[in-house]
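Field notebook, page 331. I keep forgetting to write these up properly, so this time I am using the form the group agreed on. The chain and the ligand, zinc ion, are recorded exactly as supplied. Prediction of the bound pose follows.
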Amino acid sequence: MKILGIETSCDETAAAVIQDGEKILSQVVSSSVKLHQKTGGIIPETAAREQLRYIIPVIKAALDKQVIDALAVTVGPGLIGSLLVGVETAKTLASVWQKPLIPVNHLQAHLYANWLKKGKKPKFPTIGLVVSGGHTDLVLMKKHGQIKWLGGTRDDAAGECFDKCARLLGLSYPGGPAIATAAAKFKEQKTKNRIKLPRPMLYEDNFDFSFSGLKTAVLAEVKKQKNINSALLANEIQEAITDVLVAKTKKAVREYGVDSILLSGGVTANVRLREKFKSAFKHSLLFIPPTELCTDNATFVASCAYFNYRALSWQKIQADSGLNIEEMIKF
Ligand code: KG4
Ligand code: ZN
């Protein structure tokens, strides 16, 4: 079965055609990130306007005259203006082409980047970690469509923390890659790390995270130091965020007695995070998506739709910006 996936939840306009949930036949991503660099972050109206400009050319390029069996679209969570562009376009196409349309939860979809990698496929039960710009969620996935939320951030998401800390250091948007690049420079400097940032909630007996305090600690450091060594601070920020993500995932794996782990979300593109997870889970089945499938794209939307196939008449499908990772099942 060939599914056309459509993704417009934030600042990427993406479409992809996936065969049987695992094989990428085509994929196109257009990002308005350059525009957001000018403002140091996303302005929702700007993102929505860009979605409108690119949605048709992106879908056309991904389709490239292929015949599809169904469409899938991200209905939430995300920025409502951006979501609406994808959802209304998908509904129109489904109606005109008379094809089934499957609504997809963006957070669940991120996890499916792990099914698109060649080779070994994930097995259930599995612990999933979704770390993106807007979300940090730890889940237990018993099978397709059965997701139990174990914990998540109480304030800022991990990606948001990268973005906000980068801003404090005067680095560009998006902050994750900018901090990773600055941190790599620190490794080259071979100087000693003289800064210790907090590892929020590291030893608390739950699966929750909190990253806003870390941002405040970074602000205090920036104010304290006359000439900030941004490479040193970036390195410590990256260490602090990744330490907590690894520790809480380890705790979930231990408590639920599973030996399969799925990482996903934009922050998973972080090289240091990938290294730390690989060394922490040497004896488990650890799945990390290819870097280009970590950040937003439509391949995982189509894959998620295939494995959770539930087509609805287009009239019933609506954008829902506040969807959580367990929801959708209600559709
Ligand atoms: O999943 P994603 O593309 O969009 C959302 O659904 O939010 O994630 C974007 C987030 C941004 O916060 C960005 O800074 C972060 O992922 N990110 C990274 C890296 N690449 C992207 N964070 C750390 N290291 C990276 N290399
Ligand atoms: Zn995302």
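OBSERVATIONS:
- The CA atoms of residues 151 and 207 lie 5 Å apart.
- The chain has two domains: 2-113+296-316, 118-288.
FOLLOW-UP: compare against the apo run.
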